[in-house]
TrEMBL record:
HAMAP family: Rel_fac_3. It comes from Youxingia wuxianensis. The gene is prfC. InterPro entries: EF-G-like_DII (IPR053905), EFG_III/V (IPR035647), G_TR_CS (IPR031157), P-loop_NTPase (IPR027417), PrfC (IPR004548), RF3_C (IPR032090), RF3_dom_3_sf (IPR038467), RF3_GTP-bd (IPR041732). The keyword Transferase does not apply. Pfam families: EF-G_D2, GTP_EFTU, RF3_C. Keywords: Cytoplasm, GTP-binding, Nucleotide-binding, Protein biosynthesis. GTP binds at residues 18-25, 86-90, 140-143. One of its GO terms (molecular function) is translation release factor activity, codon nonspecific. Gene3D superfamilies: P-loop containing nucleotide triphosphate hydrolases (3.40.50.300), Peptide chain release factor 3, domain III (3.30.70.3280), Translation factors (2.40.30.10). This is Peptide chain release factor 3. One of its GO terms (biological process) is regulation of translational termination. It is found in: Cytoplasm. Its main location: cytoplasm.
Amino acid sequence: MSDLKHEIERRRTFAIISHPDAGKTTLTEKFLLYGGAIALAGSVKGKKTAKHAVSDWMEIEKQRGISVTSSVMQFNYEGFCINILDTPGHQDFSEDTYRTLMAADSAVMVIDASKGVENQTRKLFKVCLLRDIPIFTFINKMDREARDPFELMEEIENELGIQTYPVNWPIGCGREFKGVYDRNKKEIISFTANGGQREVEKVELNINDDRLEQLIGKDKRQILVDDIELLDGASYDFDMDAVRHGKLSPVFFGSALTNFGVEPFLEDFLKMTTSPLPRHSDQGEIDPFDPAFSAFVFKIQANMNKAHRDRIAFMRICSGKFEKGMEVTHIQGGGKKIKLSQPQQLMAQDREIIDQAYAGDIIGVFDPGIFSIGDTLCAPGKKFQFEGIPTFAPEHFARVSQKDTLKRKQFVKGTTQIAQEGAIQMFQEPNKGMEEVIVGVVGALQFDVLEYRLNNEYNVEIRMESLPFQYIRWIENKEIDLKSLNLSSDTKIVQDFKGNYLLLFTDIWNIKWAVERNPDLVLSEFGRE
């Protein structure tokens, strides 16, 4: 039991969120570098000879220089076992990010020092607030021209409604970037660019050291002294309880690309975060230190490796210990007892079969087609269910069919599997076959990924016809007679692949029409997986 407690206490599970191009994947790579998980850090964009980012494993990600799926990586650092969930920054894949945040205990928000708070940051931040989880801020790219740090603090506070506490403070930016001042240690860490492949050479000086003037210049020293005096007098006090509840964000400045400030950030982050948090279920809170195993599925991914051609269900372990070969109860599978086969931990597409894992860990298991996002698994004898994961309403719709009718089987398999992953939502018109389906996505770029994956993974070419629908509503009262509904001519009744009925609308007025003319109709803006 003491071993179980020790293993769970040393777990840290966090997601990294940001707007595209803020440097999130680069920061992830540097964490892995410090953990010894990789020997050479890759970058998302670069020359053909450059190593691609470990966390971007899908070919389309390497071609476009964006992350379109969430990657899971585990490494050890200074006695901690760290699970990083690297999420897509592009807004067209935000639904995958929402689900991934459900599996995290804290979030690291990466902000571009020259751009500040951007649209996608706002959206993802709101999800973090709903979860009441700690949010740590890394203001990146200080080695380039950046906005005034006081202005950035103010923007974070005003735009996101969270208080800030700068743990360190930058000295200059761009070519004049000289390093940061650590407010706790009261020391300056001098910046030396080194290409970012290893730890920065640090020169640590006290603010009153005579050598400081030689290092950063008289003017910069005076600006720093004035800034620190202002911070100490006017900034929010550090409050660990406020940090734990997402009310105060510790802020760090640095440069992920050149590796500056990454290790001090990781060390402070590990001190401030907690071991795995309790999870809500229909039978109250589930304590992570309860020895009985429990987990939920937050992601399903097919064909991560062309050599395997399989489906992996990603699970967040919420309590106890997982052991290879153990029997668990699949709650949504009718309470059936199953063995989780091929349990593995992942480094993007690289896999390692494991014998055990603990609360806080993310594991992948082979999915023969029985799991759905949001499913609960627990030790035999337990019958609780974790909170469901919201299904977000798609905003773009298209009718999709295969060009070659002889490839119907591959088309059905491909669209069904990609839909089960949550990458797209798939609908059928009642009493019609699967020769053509209606696909809904949150972001239009997901259509490109669907076409690419069907072609590359299932050898199917498709036709795609854009549809005018913009809104979707789930029909909550399943007993209602669909044929008796009074709907506008451009409203369509469809079914999702779980058999739920929904309505597609071209505009908001048609939703009002449906509600006003059908008083018994109950509509919902999102379903639960």
